[in-house]
């Protein structure tokens, strides 16, 4: 089996280890004998996303977002068509913002997004920085028929990560949050919701990289990508997650015991 991973702006949008998310997907696929074809997509590339099983785009500061925003807009409809067709996507921070309607910077510049997420983002007065713990159990099982998957049943559906953003993101009714904030600021700084989901596309503020410390979520994305390519009914071989799980546990412990300025 194989999947195709389209990596948007790998150099321009890559903060706090975001590339590690791509490596995590590749590794967990390869350990199961699944090949991953990586297609790097840069400014000016004329790309057909119809064969993408998973699209990944990392975070970037306002300046990097400004550099790629126009090019992303030009690719927007094709990315949207792929998402509507069931392609999975993971977008982190600055990418998450540009997959919404717009991001308005502190200087009042409105960077248009591609409107896949029913969401918009406005820069706030302070940066929202720190380790985050979220609980995805309310939203994850509702999203599609994968709730019976062993993967989701065995996992406690928590995610750990690191946020650093000034943007506050507000969600509309067409998207679910990715999770409820247990510790951290989350989408809008109020410590309520984190990230969002539309079909199989996810946005989140969690860097880290996210996927190396949260193996259930990595596998969930891989499963969605395989479903896109081969149809439903595929199950993933179990892996020994003890190292990944201990990374998760130590991050979670640090978050829970930290004296924090979080709300
Ligand atoms: N420019 C955005 C913000 O600060 C995104 C930052 C990021 O990707 N970490 O809100």
Features of the shown structure:
six-stranded mixed sheet; 31% helix; binds glutamine; Rossmann fold; 263 residues; globular
Structure description:
31% of the residues lie in helices and 28% in strands. It has 263 residues and is α/β, with parallel strands linked by helices. It has a single domain (2-256), classed as Class I glutamine amidotransferase (GATase) domain (Rossmann fold, 3-Layer(aba) Sandwich), CATH 3.40.50.880. The strands form 2 sheets. Strands 2-1-3-4-12-11 form a 6-stranded mixed sheet. Strands 5, 6, 7, 8, 9 and 10 form a 6-stranded mixed sheet that branches. The termini are far apart. Residues 15, 59-62, 65, 93-94, 164-167 line the site of glutamine.
- Averaging pLDDT over every residue, what do you get? 93
At the fourth CATH level, what is the homologous superfamily?
Class I glutamine amidotransferase (GATase) domain
Order of helices and strands: EHEEHEHEEEHEEEEEHHH
Fraction of residues in helix: 25-40%
Oligomer: single chain
Count of all domains: 1
Cα(first) to Cα(last) distance is 45 Å
CATH fold category name: Rossmann fold
């Amino acid at each position: 089996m194989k999947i195709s991973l389209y990596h948007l702006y790998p150099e321009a949008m890559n903060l706090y280890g975001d590339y590690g998310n791509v490596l995590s997907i590749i590794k967990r696929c390869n350990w199961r004998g699944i090949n991953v074809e990586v297609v790097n997509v840069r400014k000016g590339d004329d790309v057909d996303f119809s064969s993408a099983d998973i699209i990944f785009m990392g975070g970037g500061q306002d300046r990097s977002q400004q550099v790629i925003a126009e090019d992303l807009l030009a690719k927007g409809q094709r990315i949207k068509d792929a998402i509507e067709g069931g392609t999975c996507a993971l977008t982190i921070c600055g990418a998450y913002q540009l997959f919404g309607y717009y991001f308005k910077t502190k200087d009042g510049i409105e960077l248009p997004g591609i409107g896949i997420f029913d969401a918009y983002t406005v820069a706030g007065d302070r940066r929202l920085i720190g380790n985050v713990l979220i609980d995805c159990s309310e939203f994850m099982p509702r999203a599609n028929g994968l709730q019976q998957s062993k993967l989701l049943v065995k996992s406690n559906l928590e995610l750990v990560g690191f946020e650093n953003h000034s943007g506050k993101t507000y969600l509309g009714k067409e998207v679910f949050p990715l999770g409820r904030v247990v510790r951290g600021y989350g989408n809008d700084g109020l410590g309520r919701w984190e990230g969002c989901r539309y079909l199989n596309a996810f946005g989140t503020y969690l860097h880290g990289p996210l996927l190396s410390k949260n193996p259930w979520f990595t596998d969930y994305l891989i499963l969605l990508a395989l479903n896109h390519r081969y149809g439903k009914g595929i199950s993933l071989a179990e892996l020994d997650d003890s190292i990944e799980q201990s990374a998760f546990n130590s991050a979670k412990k640090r978050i829970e015991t930290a004296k924090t300025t979080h709300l």
